[in-house]
DNA sequence: ACCCGCATGTAAGTCGTTACATGATTCT
DNA sequence: AGAATCATGTAACGACTTACATGCGGGT
């Protein structure tokens, strides 16, 4: 069983979805630390069905093309449950920006500062988006969030991971940009 | 040019190394956010040499097998410099533990708490190792660290990234373990 | 007529891991 | 004699990306 398989089961455990719906949720989506394209999802769904972890039923639609809606089976739910509490295999971290930092001593200070400042901004923006979602969650799901047995709690947990990640990354970028370049441009030349 | 190619050039810009030496430095090593096995490194070195980014010379050794020592060329250094200040393509984050958290609402609270507590410990241990290295760096490289034009500074920068990463990850694991399980076992049953 | 969103697939290629393969030298 | 480290490669496989391919229905 692949990790992608469990990612799909994790979504189907919450609600039945078509391959297309799954693809939408896997598009680098908020709070969900995995991603996949439709070209990977459709074959994986076939494999999951072959293993008896999901079943599908065709839903006919008038105004749109028909779709196959996938549902998790008891066997699939069992497999998913078993996977959750198994310690994950540790995979080496690969981060291209940090790799660039490893060679930053060779670069022009100003240019390097610009890159790390820009990347820092991206993470700050993502952080802001996450904080907004968090505010909405804490507002709308007051009970769910405090109940570890609810999917809302789990969503909140992954979101928290995202917030901590972005906060730390942004902090590091800002520090490094400052250290290599120093001077922040007084007013931009109009570019991004 | 692949990212691995730049990772190798980044190491060779600091010192000339053999494929074997490169492999040692790529074994999930401290402060260096990339990794590769020898089976990937040797072919990549051949490719880099074909592109004129590195050259090698055979060094004969009496007490050990001979080795090919690779050196970065002017062209290789130029390519590396150009790469550093290019914004990296954003790649989707894939984190299996966070994915597990997304389905944690289905799991037994105690078992889940154990997993996240254990993972948290691993990150705390890695953090401790990083902090130790940092202390030594700050002690031994006092000048290098404050000079953005020195490789020591760059090493320190990647190490800082590692520290922030581990700190954030450990914090999240502790929070989640607490939230799902609560009670910490008074005394272990002897296991890890 | 053309583009966009919905909907589902296959094929080719890249990157990385695991396994296969060989050989020298040193230590026990 | 056998294990461990140094040293360099190739082959098979799996995961993921990009591109190819098709078709319906609605809006401009």
TrEMBL record, chains A, B:
Transcription regulator PadR N-terminal domain residues: 8-81
Domain Transcription regulator PadR C-terminal, chain residue ranges per copy: 93-179
PANTHER family according to UniProt: TRANSCRIPTIONAL REGULATOR YQJI (PTHR43252), TRANSCRIPTIONAL REGULATORY PROTEIN (PTHR43252:SF4)
**Name of a matching Pfam family:** PadR
Q: What is this protein called?
A: PadR family transcriptional regulator
Domain of life, per lineage: Bacteria
Task: Provide the taxonomic classification.
Answer: Bacteria, Bacillati, Actinomycetota, Rubrobacteria, Rubrobacterales
Gene3D superfamilies reported in the protein's UniProt record? 6.10.140.190, Winged helix-like DNA-binding domain superfamily/Winged helix DNA-binding domain (1.10.10.10)
- InterPro entries the UniProt entry points to: Tscrpt_reg_PadR_C, Tscrpt_reg_PadR_N, WH-like_DNA-bd_sf, WH_DNA-bd_sf
